[in-house]
């Protein structure tokens, strides 16, 4: 899964944002989530655009370093992909089994497994 810069930074913020300072968290939120310009953020904080730019760059670097060291997003993404693959394969297997299983017992069991995988995906 290839993420665009804004999506990636929002995801990094979701995972590691609480590890930033309050000012860094606000700056990231304003810039990436509320789509404010550097000038608008500078006005909010009463600082220069350059100061906001510096905070933003430091915050981005910090978030990227957390991911490099901890890899939580990498693991999350991989687990999600595996669960989606399992969900599809279980659905395909359930359909094939339903055609061969006259009393539908096995197909029902596979359907229940598919529902569990779906619940796991929804909890992500």
List the helices and strands and how they pair.
Elements: H1 5-16, H2 22-33, H3 38-45, H4 49-70, H5 72-100, H6 105-123
Helix pairs in contact: 1-2, 1-4, 2-4, 3-4, 5-6
Account of the protein in words:
The protein is an all-alpha fold. The protein folds into two domains: 5-70, Arc Repressor Mutant, subunit A; 75-123. It is built from six helices and no strands. It has helices at residues 5-16, 22-33, 38-45, 49-70, 72-100, 105-123. The chain is rod-shaped. The model has no long low-confidence stretch (mean pLDDT 89).
Profile the largest sheet. none
Radius of gyration: 22 Å
- Catalogue the unreliable spans: none
Task: Report the CATH C-level class of the largest domain.
Answer: Mainly Alpha
Strand content: under 5%
Q: What is the CATH homologous superfamily assignment of the largest domain?
A: Winged helix-like DNA-binding domain superfamily/Winged helix DNA-binding domain
The helix content is over 70%
Query: What's the number of helices?
Result: 6
Spatial gap, N to C terminus: 16 Å
Give the helices and strands as they follow along the chain.
HHHHHH
Give me the secondary-structure category. mainly alpha
Basic shape:
rod-shaped
Give the total of beta strands: 0
In the CATH hierarchy, the architecture of the largest domain is: Orthogonal Bundle
> Which fold does the CATH topology of the largest domain refer to?
Arc Repressor Mutant, subunit A
- Give the domain tally: 2
Average pLDDT taken over every residue: 89
């Amino acid at each position: 899964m290839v993420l665009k810069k804004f999506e990636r930074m929002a995801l990094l913020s979701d995972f590691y944002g609480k590890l930033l300072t309050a000012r860094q968290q606000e700056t990231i939120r304003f810039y990436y989530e509320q789509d404010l310009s550097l000038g608008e953020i500078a006005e909010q904080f009463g600082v220069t655009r350059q100061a906001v730019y510096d905070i933003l760059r430091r915050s981005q670097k910090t978030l990227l370093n957390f991911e490099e060291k901890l890899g939580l997003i990498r693991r999350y993404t991989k687990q999600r992909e595996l669960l989606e693959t399992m969900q599809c394969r279980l659905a395909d297997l359930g359909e094939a089994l339903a055609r061969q299983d006259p009393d539908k017992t096995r197909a029902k069991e596979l359907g229940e497994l598919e529902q569990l995988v779906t619940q796991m995906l929804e909890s992500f």
